[in-house]
Amino acid sequence: MISIHGFIDTEVKSSNVVLFMKGTPDFPQCGFSGQVVQILDYLGVDYKGINIFSYDGLRQGIKDYSNWPTIPQLYVKGEFIGGCDIVREMFQQGELQTIFKKNDISIKVV
After folding, report:
1. Taking the model in full, what pTM does it have?
2. Which of 28, 36, 69, 94 gives 23 a disulfide partner, CB atoms 3.0 to 4.6 angstroms apart?
3. Pairing assessment for the beta strands 48-51 and 17-21 based on DSSP bridges
């Protein structure tokens, strides 16, 4: 049986863009997760959404992994980007789009 930390580490490193969230991209279960999903969908980014309610210990595990107290959490190429407020600010300033481009992750030209 893999540890929660091991599971998170594998997920973060095996997909280019990973969003740990409450609910799923099709059915976010909190407004903050929903906002990040809207931004990623708007940009047309291919990402993996992981519902923190899917596995026992994942909700606390992701907070411990990133040393960040809130959900959602966005990772790009294994690097923690931030939560809802940070992602929204970066998106509004064009920084998020730059991160995706620098990492060869395609986005829609908007």
Report:
1. 0.95
2. 28
3. parallel
